[in-house]
Amino acid sequence: MRQRQTILLTALALCTGLMAQTPQGITAMDEAFATFLSSKEVKTASTRWSHAMKEYHFLYTAPDDGQPIRQKDISFLAQAFAQNAPYATAAYIYDHADNEKPFNTIRYKRRDNYFSGITGSYTIDDGEDFRIINIRDDKGHPTSYGMIWHELQFKDRNGKPYRALDGTVYKFYDGIWKMSETYESNSGGQRSISISNNERVRFETLLEQVNHLAKMYTEKRREGDEKSCDAAVFFLEKLCSGYKGQLTAPQFHELSEAMNAFLKPYDVQRQSIVNNAKSTLNKKAEFIPTGKVVTYTYAPDLFGGNDQPRMLYLNYDYGEKVSPQVNVSLKGRGAVNSTALKIKRMSPSLMPYSVEMNDGQFSLSTSFVKDQFLMISDEKGHEMVVIADSIPMEVDLIDGTLRGSRQNERFAECQRRLKALKGECHLYATEDATVVDTAGYHRLMTDVLQLQVQFMKENPDNLIPAWYLSQTFFNMSHEDLSAVLKRNLPYASHLGVQPVWQYAEGLQKRLPGKRFTDAEAVDTAGVSRRLSEYIGHDNYLLLCYWDMGSRDIMKTLKQLRKTYEGKPLTILCVTLDDKLDSWKKYVRKRDLRFEHLMVKPNVSKDSYEGRTKQYEMQILKDYGIAVTLPETILFDPKGRIVATGILGDALKAKLQELNL
Asked: Which contacts qualify for 73-78: CB closer than 8 Å, 24 or more apart?
């Protein structure tokens, strides 16, 4: 297969064409796109980054008969790219079977009228084909057309095999985008700490050397041999600066205590050298947090297809002492062509580790916080979560099996049962998690959630429920939460469950049937307003708590405003953002024609103290808003709660049910 690249352009190919093109190529591509989009298999259209781009997803699925899927619609559009390449300032035509791909990630960047910039990225995975052409019209205005697709095989929960042709077509236009290519794989942006298989040996060797020097220093000091004391301090610094390993918090503490012997009697020069040595090791040590912290993350979704993502604002109290550690021995296999194993510490998330793999094999022995959830994954997407305990584990990431403690073996079995449902996701959603069959996807997600609740009920004597609670609590009903969240169970005090308790206690305050309580906030004009001005006036009120991190809810609310215009429904949005001017500008620029209020804390909400003070304000505290955003509460005309915590399609369905 051919690969044609006009590499007369730089990474900003879209904006720097060397010659003006006639509009003929653009006209032909627009016609080809229109023909393709008339196909019934094109399921979705979106403008996620800007109104100056269009993105469409397609998904063809069929029972697997052993033959590749052939679709004339795909072939037709792919041919249009090739035919119009002569009109392009740049053309990339690539088939994965025949060529080495020229780049891993394509990014389109532009300035926006609200945000300082918008970036749209397409990552090219192994096994994907793509077509990209950049064309200028006779006025020099650039347009970029792209098409990325691949074929995949999967099975449903009953083992029935399927094939799918999954892809995206897109168009960036209006001359405001710049295109750039990334030739290296994107690591995800989060730095990993590399650890080797002999970290413990390295630490024990260093500790022995430090103790030996400390003993020599003490003896020479008693003898009055100051030169030998200086030499001991000098070699201490050399040992620490040359240390190649990674330290846990307790290991650093033990080394630091041993080094205190060099500080007696007090000597300014020696103390400076010893402190430098400690500082060097400090940079190699990863401390387990202590005290109270707040972390931010998107609500996890096992299969990635949330129709309405949530932000989680998770408050943790680690305690004032470093958590107890346990030595974890882990070995096993992953994909043969993976070079590194990533170990992410979850619920709460901490800095991930990266471990070298050889021919798909990995092995390590190092310390982790006892009972910490560890997500181990290779570079090809095989993953498993294990619980840090002292019993050696042998893991097969390919088939999802594990030998180790009874708890971890049961945990691995739960994950295998859950992953058996994952294949079915390709019947309802594209590979990049764009839902194309809403009803089917929601049925699957209901089954997924109920299976996880079943795991919690099946494992009341271990820590497995703590994992599934931390991953699903924001989607669970009050009844399901009440059935598994009990103080006397062994997982109830797990650190990862702390936000679950906060959420459950808040949910109790806004259950259906409860009457509204009045509270105060300010509107966009800075005027104090009360909830009683909006609730209980012969209209339904949809109260939505949100901030900029959870602004995706605004798309749904704008749809509801149009649908129920003239009907007895008021939409009131309460933001937790604390930047008044920025909030007002966003409301105006995005044409958010709802009622708006702001909850402004006395200090920045980005700190634990600021977020805590904000949650203490009555309009949040009375309704238990503390963990998830966006959060919705629907009140009837009498001021009683009809529904809470529903978003996206569930929210639309509830309003339809009310027949306003």
From this structure: 73/36, 73/39, 73/41, 74/149, 74/165, 74/167, 76/32, 76/35, 76/36, 77/32, 77/33, 77/35, 77/36, 77/147, 77/169, 78/129, 78/131, 78/147
